[in-house]
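Final report, results section. Input specification for complex C-07:
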Amino acid sequence: MGAYELGGKVALVTGGARGIGYETARLMHARGASVAVLDLDGQATREAAERIGERTLAIAADVTDQGAMQAAVAEVVERFGGLDVVVANAGIAPEGATTRTMPPEEWERVVEVNLLGVWRTVRAALPQVSERRGQVVLIGSLASFLNGLMLSPYAAAKAGVEALGRPLRVELAPFGASATVAYFGWVDTEMVRDGLDRQQGGKRMQELLPKAFFKRIKPEEAAAALVRGIEERAPRVFAPKWWRYASAFRGLLNPVFDRRMERDAKVHAAVRGAEADKATARS
Ligand SMILES: NC(=O)c1ccc[n+]([C@@H]2O[C@H](COP(=O)([O-])OP(=O)(O)OC[C@H]3O[C@@H](n4cnc5c(N)ncnc54)[C@H](O)[C@@H]3O)[C@@H](O)[C@H]2O)c1
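Structure output:
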């Protein structure tokens, strides 16, 4: 497939009020697209759209609400005449905990937002995107293919996002449309600052792996890689780039790392520590 020109196109970015979503919306707008920013909080969403400039629309909606997502797409079509690119970016991270001790409501909410929210976004946008030979962009993660130790709902959802994006790409091809899955490493956003810097679980995780693994890139860098991927209609986007090799060799690497973690005394101690933290918090 050839290059995709963003000038004159219409894009909808969920979770666009801050972080990677905001930077992606800003950059697509700078390339000439009209952009709808969708997020939970009305005021934050309006402010984000205003900061981006003209040719923007702010929509307050929850991606888990199918009716609200249908209405959001209808609003975009009414305002800009159609919808070409949907970026299903909205996501949340749980507080790090073992599967046994994570509150079940929290486990399910993460899957609800990160997988079903993506599906409901895609479902609402698909008629427009396929008719206009556009693009569906799904934000996965390294957790789509790495071991999601102490973040199991996040990993389950992100693996599901990848599994949704691959068949979608094939199914859209006969209509001249496409789908992309993005895999980001650590991006310095509120989600990561909260998870790694403030939460005990995140601090424990950082003790298990070399510092280099947790090196963060800026949201602007993640967005730049993503927008380049959209302009190339790439099937996959990795940022930092070298994660593409870990993904390419996942079939060999995953069993080796899973087995190492399963036997590692430091991992055992971290799991026990995380369970003890939860028990203390409950008492
Ligand atoms: N930051 C990272 O290191 C990283 C790495 C890989 C993947 N990701 C993914 O990138 C995406 C963006 O993450 P971020 O780091 O910019 O996080 P962030 O917390 O800065 O931004 C997420 C945005 O999504 C919005 N949101 C959450 N739930 C929503 C809902 N139900 N409906 C509508 N909006 C909702 C939030 O209000 C927020 O504005 C997420 O899907 C995340 O899983 C992030």
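The longest strand covers residues 178-184. The chain has eleven helices and nine strands. This concludes the modelling results for the funded period.
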